[in-house]
Structures are given as C-alpha cells and as structure tokens.
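Example S7 (structure tokens).
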C-alpha cells in the first residue's frame, strides 16, 4: 500500500498562511507562534518541544474563531482588532477551553492541549510540569505580541523598558525562568524582527522537522477546513462532506490507499478560498473570475506538499470537466485520473445538495451523459444515495467540540 507522507514543516507552512488571512487574530497568532518558540529556545527546550510550542502558539487563540465570535470580526480592524477583542469578556469567555478541546484531537499536540486552555492562567495558579510551563510561555508570548501591536515600533527602546516594568508589576503571573527568557528574547534583534512579521520562519524558530503521523495530518486538515469553511454558514461543512463522499465512492473504484488520498484531496480542495473576500465565497458564482481563481490559490497554498503531488493534483482539479469545459486549466478526460474524477463528482453533488437542488443525483447524471463528469463515479454515487447515504449527516467533530465547551454558543 502506498504511504501518503507529509512533513510537520509543510503542514505548518499551510496552517500559518491560512491563519495569517484570518482577520483580527491572524497576525497575533503568527507572532505568538514564533515568540513562543523563541522563548522555548532560550530556555533550552528540546527541539521537539520547541516545534510544539510553535504550533501551540499558532493555535492558542483558535477558540476565538467560533461562529459567535467571528460574526463580530467586522467590528474590529484586521490586524490590530485583537487589542479591542481582548477587552470583550463576552467574546473571550471560555476561548482557552474551546481551543484546547479543538487541539486535543490532534495526536501530536493532544497531550499538550492543556497549555492552550491555561494560557491566561497566572503562574501562581498553575500546577508544576512541562505542559504548564508551556502554558506560561504562551501567556507571555501572547502578551509580548499584544504590546508590540500597541506600540507598533520594535526599534523603540522604550518598548523593552516598558515590558521590563510590566513584568516587575506582574511577577506572580509568570514563572521566573519564563520571565528571564522573555526578557532575553526581546533583546535578540534579528529573531524579534522575524518573530513580529507575518511570515513563517519555521527554520529559524521550530528548527526540527519530522514526518507527521497520518492521524495528525487528517486532524490538521479538518482544522484548516473549519477555519476556511466557516467563513460562510452555507459552506461550513462543505469540505467534510466532499471528503467523506469521495472516500465512499473510492471504496468501489480505487485501492484503499488511493481512497485515503482522495479523502485528503477532499479536505484540501477548497482551502484557497481563505484568500477570497467572504462575499465572493458565499456567492458561489462560478462565472465570477475571483471565485474561479480560488483553485489557483489552493494550488499555491499546497505548493510545499511536494511529497503529495498526486493528492494536490486531485484536489485542485475538482472544477475541471472531462470535455474541457471546466476551469482553471481546461483539462480534458485524458488528463484526469479516476481519483480526480471522483473528487469532481463528490464536489458537484455536495454543492447541488447544499444549494437545495431537489434531485441532485439527476443533475449529476445529466452532466455525466453530457460528457462532463465520470459515468462510473456517478453510478456509484447513485447506488450510495439509493441505499440511504445522506451527506448532510456528515459534519466536523470540531462543531461538537465547540458545543461541549461553549455555553454561550
């Protein structure tokens, strides 16, 4: 069986690009990731723990991406809105616990998810142990980022002095080693310049790279789908539905390994929409040039996934059609493999059902008869629907996690 492999670095690059596009929390999350890793380096954490600090820092405020908070994003500025958001207790409530619950499902981070839950807890109220030291590092990195966004001038020497004074006034909030490391970190000019821009800088901060286990990869992609699909309530479960349906069709037509690849492609296929205005995403207008280029953005987003070229190809050709009438490359049947064709059929059917088309199967059948979609895949789809398969039953576990913790949702 072919093994689909991808590195932690590659996944982190995609995650950071997506986070950077999220208004209000995006820049702050990217900064906190690098600042957390930098402080961990200064404290001589093992390279694997520094890598986890980087990812935990990136996701420390993922609890602020839930729908009831996102609906308020437009009331804040894009990059500095976090400074106003943190003053809204109604929106901040439980965000650490919610974020922890979301991250708990990622095996490589699961045992450290408590660091996200406790990242606002003062050191004097924390237990002793590495995970709680990590929580305190996230806390102080979060504070540095907020203060940098406030002063907007890293070169200003007053920032360092003001931060030192702040720490002296809040000694009980941070472990002594964490305070000392943070003070040393903000004096490292080259690292601080990289830490406070919007770029990834994985090599400079996380350093180590490793092959990500498949379960973690699948859960990271689920998280990315959540971040992108929840831009609009009409699409909030779209990628999940496409991924599950594509895998069901693949069970009849492909090997088990190819079926897993098709599932990953379904997860990945629409992530480029994060670079589009939300109004364009919600329109689903395929005649709109801006909407059509989301595929190109997806292709560029996953350019780093060099170990998964086939899967990326299956993801980014989901709007191509066998007769060449699709987009954006106008490929024809000879260019489209069976896995790519399956993703096309799954996406077409799911989109029609989500739009409320009464007989979506018949519509897909007509497109197969017209030579646009693959007949074999459509026949399998017909059988699934006839036997009671309902795509509307498939939604992300992240939604259930949120409901468990968010009492105000």
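Recovered sequence:
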């Amino acid at each position: 069986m072919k093994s689909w492999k991808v590195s932690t670095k590659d996944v982190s690059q995609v995650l950071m690009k997506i986070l950077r596009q999220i208004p209000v929390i995006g820049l702050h999350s990217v900064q906190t990731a690098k600042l957390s890793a930098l402080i961990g380096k200064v404290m001589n954490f093992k390279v694997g723990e520094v890598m986890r600090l980087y990812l935990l820092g990136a996701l420390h405020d993922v609890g602020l991406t839930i729908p009831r908070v996102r609906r308020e994003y437009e009331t804040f500025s894009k990059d500095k809105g976090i400074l106003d958001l943190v003053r809204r207790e109604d929106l901040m409530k439980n965000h650490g616990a919610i974020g922890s619950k979301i991250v708990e499902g990622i095996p490589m981070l699961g045992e450290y998810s408590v660091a996200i839950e406790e990242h606002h807890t003062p050191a004097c109220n924390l237990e002793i142990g590495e995970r709680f030291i990590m929580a305190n590092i996230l806390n102080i990195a979060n504070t540095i980022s907020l203060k940098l966004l406030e002063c907007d001038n890293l070169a200003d020497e007053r920032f360092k002095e003001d931060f030192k004074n702040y720490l002296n006034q809040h000694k009980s909030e941070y472990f002594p080693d964490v305070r000392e490391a943070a003070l040393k970190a903000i004096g490292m000019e080259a690292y601080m310049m990289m830490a406070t821009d919007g770029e990834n800088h994985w090599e400079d901060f996380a350093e180590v790279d490793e092959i990500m286990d498949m379960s973690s990869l699948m859960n990271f992609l689920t998280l990315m789908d959540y971040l992108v699909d929840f831009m609009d309530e009409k699409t909030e479960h779209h990628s999940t539905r496409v991924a599950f349906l594509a895998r069901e069709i693949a069970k009849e037509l492909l090997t088990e390994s190819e079926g897993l690849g098709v599932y990953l492609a379904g997860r990945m296929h629409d992530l480029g929409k994060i670079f589009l205005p939300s109004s364009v995403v919600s329109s689903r207008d395929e005649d709109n040039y801006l909407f059509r280029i989301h595929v190109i953005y997806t292709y560029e987003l996953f350019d780093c996934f060099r170990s998964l070229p086939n899967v990326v190809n299956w993801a980014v050709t989901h709007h191509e059609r066998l007769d060449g009438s699709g987009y954006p490359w106008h490929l024809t049947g000879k260019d489209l493999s069976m896995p790519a064709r399956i993703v096309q059929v799954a996406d077409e059917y799911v989109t029609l059902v989500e739009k409320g088309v009464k007989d979506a199967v018949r519509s897909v059948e007509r497109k197969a008869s017209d030579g646009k979609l693959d007949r074999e895949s459509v026949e399998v789809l017909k059988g699934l629907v006839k036997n009671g398969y309902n795509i509307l039953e498939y939604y992300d576990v992240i939604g259930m996690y949120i409901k468990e913790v968010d009492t105000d949702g």
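Notes on this example. The mean pLDDT is 91.
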